[in-house]
Specification:
Blueprint: E1 4-10, H1 12-15, H2 25-35, E2 40-46, H3 52-62, E3 69-73, H4 76-80, H5 85-101, E4 106-109, H6 119-135, E5 138-140, H7 163-186
Parallel strand pairs: 1-2, 1-3, 3-4, 4-5
Helix pairs in contact: 2-7, 3-5, 5-6
């Protein structure tokens, strides 16, 4: 069976900051998909420090045309810098629009701001669902669900996931990537209305 092509466009959470290359999220996601019976090649298009604006600038060269599904995993650095949610939304909208124009569906991996960010957190957190809804794209609501701020799953910086945290993310994300790839194969993704993945 020919392996399908997935590209993960992201920041340090994708690039594998602080862990070995073989422990990075794209590598572990590919391994989990293969364990589930889905031969997939997951390309690592993560650059540490990237914001949504940076991802937008490099996406055309970072996401090859052979990509069947792009996981858009950006926004954490925007949040850390408190970039205006309206700008984050515009950048993500442009990324998804340009991918769609190339015939590449997106799975948006959401990010959340800590609650002590107050009103900024409310506005920022809504961006990812808003963009997914606008494009009838699939949404994985929070990439770091069950990982963020848990010392068992993050590095000493209390921000980036450690190897155990990355493995947990991959285990949670893989079934949803497989589901979306199934929708693409059946030709039902574009016809399906927006809904967050469970």
């Amino acid at each position: 069976m020919i392996a399908r092509r997935v590209t993960m466009l992201g920041d340090s959470l994708t690039a594998g900051y602080g862990v070995r290359t073989d422990q990075s999220l794209p590598v572990r996601l590919q391994a989990e998909l293969e364990r589930l019976g889905h031969p997939v090649r997951v390309a690592n298009a993560g650059v540490s420090g990237d914001t949504t604006a940076d991802g937008l600038r490099r996406m055309d060269r970072a996401v090859p045309q052979t990509t069947e599904l792009c996981l858009v995993a950006l926004g954490a650095n925007d949040m850390m810098r408190k970039i205006a949610p309206e700008q984050v939304r515009a950048n993500l909208d442009a990324i998804v629009s340009r991918l769609s124009g190339r015939g590449i569906p997106s799975l948006i991996c959401g990010m959340r701001a800590p609650p002590w960010f107050g009103s900024y957190a409310l506005a920022f957190d809504a961006v990812f669902a808003d963009v997914a809804r606008a494009h009838d794209a699939r949404l994985f609501p929070f990439l770091l669900e069950g990982i963020a701020l848990d010392p068992a799953y993050v590095l000493a910086d209390r921000i980036h996931p450690n190897a155990a945290g990355i493995e947990r993310i991959a285990n949670r994300l893989a079934p949803h990537v497989a589901h979306v790839l199934g929708e693409i194969r059946r030709g039902s993704l574009e016809r399906a209305k927006f809904r967050p993945l469970p």
